[in-house]
Write a structure and sequence with these properties.
The structure is a single chain. By secondary structure, this protein is mainly beta. It folds into three domains: about 25-315, Immunoglobulin-like, CATH 2.60.40.420; about 340-480, Cupredoxins -  blue copper proteins (Immunoglobulin-like); about 490-565, Immunoglobulin-like. It contains four helices and 41 strands. The strands form eight sheets. Strands 12, 13, 14, 15, 17, 19, 20 and 22 form an eight-stranded mixed beta sheet that branches. A six-stranded mixed beta sheet has the order 1-16-24-23-18-21, covered by helices on one side. It has a five-stranded mixed beta sheet with strand order 2-5-11-10-7. Residues about 1-20 and about 480-485 have low confidence and may be disordered. The structure holds CU-O-CU linkage and copper (II) ion (2 copies). One copper (II) ion binds near residues 401 and 459.
Length: about 575
């Protein structure tokens, strides 16, 4: 009898040991809060799989970065130090801020350079994120693991009975997938074979037996995740990209696309001891939804395509003190934008590039917005400050694309003529444009007119974005001192330069009234009224990096800007 008991115990232990071994404890990113944030981006390595370590990119750590807590109304100052051996950028996805602080493709941070953007947090309480955005390198830099979450708190959200103990009943889940080669190194491909949550493979976590909030980010290069639970339980969507919904929306599935965030509540009350898996129910995805296509071979072939797979193994444990045990019935009263107030409807197109041969596109097929591949010197739109605009995106692409715009949060008006579902009827900054459908959204462009620095709109599939599925707009105001960047009609040489630059107007009749040199975040370094330029401009004291020469033309007072690099 006794030996039988022992045998049962041993068998039970062996089963337990093998289960325990097949999961890794979910990593919860560290937190930073206050108003000054130090973020150091570096190449490093991490023990992600047994054997060789993986070369990764991290922010203040080995993979991914800290979760930043902002309070609405604070002015936050970022000290972003690029310790990579190459240039990058860091973009504050979802934030309403001056374009020059945005961290898009124009705010290049050279290696070794400290970039110090700052802005007032005006965004609603929600989950945002930060990630690199260097044109043609976004996929590479995100693949390394560079990025992190931002949680904004505000008074309205703080007054609600919602879970908010980070890592306990308020759990961040950054979803992505990666492909490893036989040396355990990341392969730069749009779809990975291995699911990762917060950089953890085969992640497991414990949650208390109460209402738990998950802040879910789709941080993948391309894949969408059709999230749900293995027991098909209901969860409650409380927050879309840019803020709380009016009321929790009960669902059993939510299809989350690249770049999107969603906050959900799950009630584990009375379920202590239960096990449940958070899964991607991707077997139901259509072929034209990212992750739904089966590629038998080639760079898109991947083990997770069109199948259901586990993302997080959840073990329900004892309730904590002061637990939230009920889902609130209401959250807030959103005042959404009204189509009748729009000043303009802008019509955008998404097409497949088959047949676009100039410039040739990676792999022969890419996707194009407004029939034009990204050009960093071309602004598609001038948006007058204060405009309320409808953006109507008509896709004739045979693939779906998550469309993202900088500067604003918007409200979806319709997807193929149909009003958005309750979970999508709030503030958004990414909207999925299904294959061959039309999406309309409305946004108001307030604050921060700056004709020199554009904002981006693009597909949030990093591969598509890098291939040129991106455009830009400037927000302008009549009272702004600068005007839209038109054609470059002066030149700087040499560029890159070390000691001295020469500035020459293309038109020999034109003269320079004023010349300023600004650094990458717009700080004026040099101001030269009516300059004598024959000897060039001394830049030998400048630290290496990207600078802007802004000139005001004598006769027209037209303001023109050119970029140069000091080595
Ligand atoms: Cu999350 Cu322009 O990007
Ligand atoms: Cu963004
Ligand atoms: Cu796309």
């Amino acid at each position: 009898m006794r030996s039988l008991f022992l045998t049962i115990c041993l068998v039970a232990f062996a089963a337990f040991a093998s289960t325990a071994q097949s999961y890794n404890q979910l990593w919860i990113p560290d937190t930073l809060s206050g108003t000054e944030f130090n973020l150091t981006i570096r190449d490093t390595f991490a023990q992600l799989v047994p054997g060789n370590q993986t070369i990764t990119g991290g922010i203040n750590g080995k993979f991914w970065g800290p979760t930043l807590f902002f309070n609405k109304g604070d002015v936050v100052h970022m000290n972003v130090l690029n310790k990579l051996n190459e240039a990058t950028t860091l973009h504050w996805h979802g934030f309403h801020l001056p374009a020059v602080m945005d961290g898009g493709p124009h705010q290049v941070i050279p290696p070794g350079t400290l970039w110090q953007p700052y802005w007032e947090v005006t965004n609603n309480a929600s989950t945002y994120w930060y990630h690199p955005h260097l044109h043609e390198e976004t996929m590479a830099h995100i693949t390394k693991g560079i990025g992190g979450l931002i949680i904004v708190r505000d008074a309205e959200e703080a007054a609600l009975p919602l879970p908010r103990t980070y890592g306990v009943d308020d759990i961040p889940l950054a979803l992505t997938d990666r492909d490893f080669n036989t040396q355990n190194q990341f392969v730069e491909v749009p779809y990975g074979d291995s699911m990762m949550v917060n950089g953890t493979l085969r992640a497991k976590t414990s949650v208390p037996a109460q209402v738990v909030r998950f802040r879910v980010l789709n941080g993948a290069i391309e894949r969408s995740y059709n999230i749900g639970f293995s027991d098909n339980r209901s969860f409650y969507v409380i927050c879309s990209d840019g803020g709380l919904l009016n009321a929790p929306v009960p669902l059993t599935r939510y299809l989350l696309h690249a770049g999107e965030r969603v906050e959900i509540l799950v009630n584990f009350s009375g379920q202590s001891g239960q096990l449940v898996d958070l899964k991607a129910f991707n077997s139901t995805l259509a072929q034209n939804v990212p992750g739904g296509d089966l590629f038998p071979n080639g760079p898109f072939a991947n083990y997770l395509a069109r199948k259901d797979f586990n993302m997080l193994h959840i073990n329900v444990t004892a309730q904590t003190a002061n637990a939230i045990t009920a889902i609130p019935s209401a959250l807030k009263t959103n005042v959404l934008l009204n189509a009748a107030d729009a000043n303009i409807t802008r019509k955008l197109s998404i097409i497949d590039s088959m047949g676009v041969t100039n410039p040739p596109i990676l792999g022969g097929v890419a996707f194009v917005i407004n029939h034009k591949l990204f050009d960093i010197n071309y602004n598609q739109y001038n948006v007058p400050l204060g405009n309320t605009e409808i953006w109507e995106i008509k896709s004739t692409s045979n693939f779906g694309h998550p469309f993202h715009i900088h500067d604003v949060e918007f409200n979806i008006l319709s997807v193929n003529g149909v009003a958005p579902t309750a979970a999508q009827a709030g503030w958004k900054d990414v909207v999925f444009v299904p294959a061959n459908q039309t999406v309309r959204f409305i946004a108001r462009f307030e604050d921060y007119a700056d004709a020199l620095h554009p904002f981006m709109y693009h597909c949030h599939i990093s591969l598509h974005e890098d291939e040129g599925m991106m455009g830009q707009f400037v927000v302008t105001s009549a009272s702004a001192t600068n005007e839209p960047e038109t054609k470059p009609d002066f030149s700087i040489f040499p560029n890159p330069a070390t000691d001295r630059i020469f500035v020459k107007m293309d038109d020999p009749e034109a003269a320079i009234y004023y010349l300023k040199i600004m650094d990458a975040v717009g700080r004026v370094k040099l101001m030269l009224p009516q300059p004598q330029l024959s000897g060039g401009v001394d830049i030998s004291k400048f630290t290496p990096g990207t600078y802007f020469v802004q000139i005001t033309e004598q006769a027209t007072k037209k303001v023109l800007t050119q970029k140069f690099v000091k080595q």
